[in-house]
Amino acid sequence: MTVVREHYQLKETIVTIIAEDKKYIEVAKKEIQKCRNEIEQYIRKDEFFKVTLKPYIHSKKDPEIIKKMCNSANKVIVGPMATVAGIIAEYAVKAMVSRGAKYAIVDNGGDIALYSNRLVNIGIYTGKQKTAGLALQILPSNDIIGICTSSGNIGYSLSFGNADSVTVFSNNLSVADAAATALGNLVNSGCDIESAFKILEGIQEISGAIIIIGKKIGFWGNVPKIVPANVSYDLITRGRYN
Q1: Which of 11, 81, 191, 223 has its CA 20 to 30 A from that of 183?
Q2: Tens digits of per-residue pLDDT, 105-144?
Q3: Got the DSSP string for 44-96?
Q4: DSSP bridge partners of 150
Q5: Residue 116 maps to which CATH number?
Q6: How many domains in the chain?
Q7: Domain assignment of residue 239, yes or no
Q8: Segment 209-237 mean pLDDT
Q9: Which pLDDT belongs to residue 217?
Q10: Which pairs from 62-67 meet CB under 8 Å and 24+ separation?
């Protein structure tokens, strides 16, 4: 199958978009622009939405994307912007699928929405040699799969912890993104792994999670198989913004 890949940046949003046809790449880009526009318009009305690290209560009149960000973040007691990368990736892939895409991936800086009719290996990157050459084996699915990662050591996202990586799996990417942030905030050493996982209890949308810190790794729920893979550093979604 032919695969088209494009790196795309819109302000702070830095993504890799992958599909079987260029037309779906354009669909994703338009949806990213739409999502950002709605979120930016809301922030212009209330700048507190952007900066708060605590649950934010939306109103019934707010846009659906704002409501979903708030509801997802509130499940794990973080601010709504902890969901922004995941929800943009999810909406972009949903738009691609609605237009007929059978293979659609949006990687928003480690927060990945994936819809695929074939097996896909997603590389594990912690910035350290011990995880080089390992990947998550994602099986074909009729649902959009969310794989959201937070790190205390890599990337621009705010984290109060020290984990090399915290990855959460859910079909609801805004929940996965918020939960990855919340978990990451709680992990400063390997001793914190077991207690941190307790915040996921009762959240039915989350299917599994992985925490990697130092020489320790912890698993919760159902997680994809970890397999050897030739993971290219050049494929990692990264970039700069002001």
Answers
A1: 11
A2: 999 989 999 999 999 999 887 665 555 678 999 999 999 9
A3: HH-THHHH--S-----TTS-HHHHHHHHHHHHTT--GGGGHHHHHHHHHHHHH
A4: 166
A5: 3.10.520.10
A6: 1
A7: no
A8: 84
A9: 92
A10: 63/38, 65/35, 65/38, 65/39, 65/91, 66/38, 66/39, 66/42
